[in-house]
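[worker-b] picked up task from shared queue
[worker-b] task type: protein-ligand structure
[worker-b] ligand name resolved to magnesium ion; SMILES cross-checked against name lookup, match
[worker-b] sequence length check passed
[worker-b] input payload:
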Amino acid sequence: MRTAVLVFPGSNCDVDCYKAIEQTLGTPVEYVWHQETSLDGFDLILVPGGFSYGDYLRCGAIARFAPVMDAVKVAVERGAFVLGVCNGFQILLESGLLPGAMRKNTSLKFICQPQMLRVARNDLAFTAEYAVGEEINVPIAHGEGNYYCDEATLEELKANNQIVFTYAGTNPNGSVADIAGITNKQGNVVGMMPHPERAVSELLGSDGGKRMFTSVLNAWRERNGAVIG
Amino acid sequence: MAQSSVKSNAAKEPTAAQIAEQKIYRQMGVTEAEYELICGFLGRNPNYVEIGVFSVMWSEHCSYKNSKPVLRKFPVTGPRVLMGPGEGAGIVDIGDNQAVVFKIESHNHPSAIEPFQGAATGVGGIIRDIFSMGSRPIALMNSLRFGRLESERVKYLFEHVVSGIAGYGNCIGIPTVGGEVVFDEAYEGNPLVNAMCIGLINHDQIQRGVAKGVGNPVYYVGPATGRDGIHGATFASEELTAESEAKRPAVQVGDPFMEKLCLEACLELIASGNLVGIQDMGAAGLTCSSAEMAAKAGNGIELYLDEVPQRETGMTPYEMMLSESQERMLFVCTPEQEEAATAIFDRWGIICKKVGKVTDDGRLRLFHKGEQVADMPVQELTEACPTYNKPSKVPAYYEANASVDTTRYEEPADLQAVLEKLLDVPSIASKEWVYNQYDYMVRTGTVIGPGSDAAVVHVPGTRKALATSTDCNGRYVYLDPEMGGRIAVAEAARNVVCSGAEPLAITDNLNFGSPDKPEIFWQLTTSVDGMAEACRVLETPVIGGNVSLYNENTKGAIYPTPVIGMVGLIHDLDHITSQGFKAEGDAIFLIGETNVEFGGSEYQASIFNVVEGRPPVIDLAVEKTMQNALLGSIQAGLVQSAHDLSEGGLGVALAESCISGKRGASVSIESTLRADAVLYSESQSRVLVSTTQANAAAFAEAIGKAGVPIAQIGTVTGETLNVSINGASKIAAQVSKLQQIWKDAIPCRMA
Amino acid sequence: MLKAIVYVTIKENVLDPQGSAVQGALHKLGFPEANHVRIGKYMEITLDTNNEQEAAAKVQVMCEKLLANTVVEDYRFELVQTVEA
Amino acid sequence: MLKAIVYVTIKENVLDPQGSAVQGALHKLGFPEANHVRIGKYMEITLDTNNEQEAAAKVQVMCEKLLANTVVEDYRFELVQTVEA
Ligand SMILES: Nc1ncnc2c1ncn2[C@@H]1O[C@H](COP(=O)(O)OP(=O)(O)O)[C@@H](O)[C@H]1O
Ligand SMILES: [Mg+2]
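[worker-b] inference finished, payload out:
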């Protein structure tokens, strides 16, 4: 499995995503500059957190126009796995790959803290190794994670089972229906505010996010009938 | 251009003769004697640009004219020190060809006026100091002081300083892993905002800001220059008055996104080897960076000011030289390196423009619109500012405090109520409200984030980690600068030791009132004596720092607050220790000796509403022995948790270890001292430690053998904190209840 | 030259955390009469053109593509003539 | 009822990082004619009062104390009559 970590001006968690793949999977991983126009040959695409373009105007609004985002659309079409974390989730929303939009946290403050999430479905490449209803510790760190979509879209998300993670306990940011992460209809694109790449080792406080990476590797193996990767 | 055109101000500038006759230099903070010196160096009267450049280079902020004689007292060398004070930041070896780079800096005055931008640009400035050395910044710390959390203005300052720090650090993607916040009337109207940055570097990547190689081009990097913060450097060296309020445009706006790009591009440039020297444009922008780079190489520099990228129209040479627009750097390379160097900045989309060249005449020459507009000798600009040995006088309050009996307070009947009250004091209470706004986890290296004695950050690719803490108890320093200075260093070292680290070195930020007042100058020199002594005994040299004077408001000076930023080395990840109790049944020890010491304590201030007498006494040799013994035990794997005793004494330390560990404790102490002293005295060199039962005996023996007093005082158990003294129960409180008080104190006041 | 003045506001039926927070703060400051607060963006874009029609078409595209996120925001704009500096 | 419309803009000579970033994005999007972008805030505050003079005085205080950061921002406002909903 080849992984691409996209790098936009202002990406910060690109390094963390890269390290997470390197340390938990040991599979090939490369940084891909926002000016690149092709993601051919990549099986997993990580859209990292950070403050692309300073998050000026709206989070993710400017990054969405980077040439590499056209390549992401092509990759999504061919079924590549795409995971957008935090700012990456915001970019996926702005580019229309996932439905909805982000607002400022209700507290209007940036919030960084350990966070319990509830896994809503485990029939996805990214969540196969979790149990439905399982609670995992995956930290959050964002100022605009207050997910919004209108009633109709919410109904559709529910009907299509597109909600992947919800916040357990107190909702930290005010998101609609306690949503922490969603997927597209095909299930190959996941966007989430919490940072699984920060939760891959007990040394850093939690390994609750690790199975997202091992899950997707397994899914890739199954898909490709490969033994190694 | 759409911008409304601003007519050149050059026509309005006073002439050299007018500057001399009307003594205009005095408005710039240049004394008559200094002016005469400058005239001598130039062989004529300086024009407006020249006097402007001299005035910032000779301001306290850049020249340390009032503090240099004091700073000479610090020990600045040691076996691990690779670079001491003098460059942007100091550097300490951590083995394997790696080194740690760190420095602290203040942004007190700008933050008092515009707290968000003041704090944000403070963070931006210190980050540039670190990466301009060639180092990758890996952590930020901050040390803050505000007035009491009661008035709307203090809440406003607190709220916006914190969000300014968060706004900058989060956006640039460097974790803010710790710091300290203290609220005290002494800082009303004059908050302190000190930011520290820590970076990693390989020995062979260390950069120096030198303009070597006559004929080499000089490049400007970063956003265009505007009229931001002109005269910011002199501004930082003045007292806050209604008049300085009127100088508001002196506040600069930070752009962390731009700095992120600048950081990545500069590190890429350095890794590529395509440069000769690089320096950030900090205080006094283009002036300071160009003069210092030339001076360090023994060369001169010519600048062609028409080439300087400008954000506004009609900027004068004076404005360009003195602008403090943020996120800018200056570098020198060879003509052969130019193409590769500029290509890097192109890729990152950052302005990179040739603005001058290195010369052999030792002069800073400025050209504008085809004319030479200034010509000054660089050594004189950077080195020749006179230093002043200010008069010093022991203040009356200090003499008077000698006879204050700090044991005369009547012991309160309910010592649990005292604990609850102390946990509700904002300076002691949980700082979660603050640090949850900081991304303290980005870069996935934070092993211990905010909330323990020291923060711990992993050194990637190794088994090593760095521990860091900032500390200063201004009340102690006020009551006894020498003792307070010692304690500040000792406490910072103790915090770092408690996390399992060997203290390496310090950076310091000397926040004081006006040195023109002999009593304040006495505080400054005396506290530095104490700090220097502690640095010698604890073997933690000073590798850099910052001086912020004139921290006064209408009510007088702040408490003297020399903030210490300590960095320690954890040799193996297994040694990392935190303050929370770890497991049911663990043994709890108190090491160190307790005396009745209430002077300057939180107990004295919060329960008896006075700050008087003498602060606790510290014996540095005892401290050193204790730290060595404790660190040895931690490294030997004997220790489960360690927490140093500081504000609020044993009572607060016990509560904090319980809260952090989400566990109770049963403690019983035999003592000849009064019970309130057992619980709330702030005697130094003490640490609360827990060990497994299996290791208890070995730990007690190891500490005892070193000659350090030690007592097993209880065990970790249940969900309540129970403390009895000489058989009488003094505290029996649910940990959850204590936690509630401690956690709610700040949010409730801010709601 | 023309200047486009663009107003971007959060849609009426979307809960606006910033507006609510400011309203709360105004009440605390002693202004109970502030009973509904909406916060949006105000942008000024100077355009190197004098052709109003063309400019209007372009600004419309800018708004749709970048300046507003029409999932949650509404926008409107005006064009004004500015005097050459 | 009255509605206060408040415009908060960054002072002329103060850096507007947001405006610069948006300007850069507009250029890349194919709008080179967008040559100067400044971004400010636009606020609507409904006021439970009909007394214009009083309202104006109050909105002025709101701006000074809360809505604008007068160190780096300018503000102006208008009052408009609204029909009771
Ligand atoms: N309190 C202090 N203790 C030790 N060194 C200091 C102190 N204050 C300043 N220095 C050192 O003096 C040198 C000049 O400082 P400064 O002018 O602040 O550097 P910069 O130009 O990066 O702002 C630096 O190396 C700094 O570390
Ligand atoms: Mg401590």
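[worker-b] attaching auto-annotations
[worker-b] Chain B touches chain D at residues 1-4, 113-114, 116-117, 223, 226-228, 248-249, 251-255, 257-258, 311-312, 325-326, 349 (CB under 8 Å).
[worker-b] releasing lock
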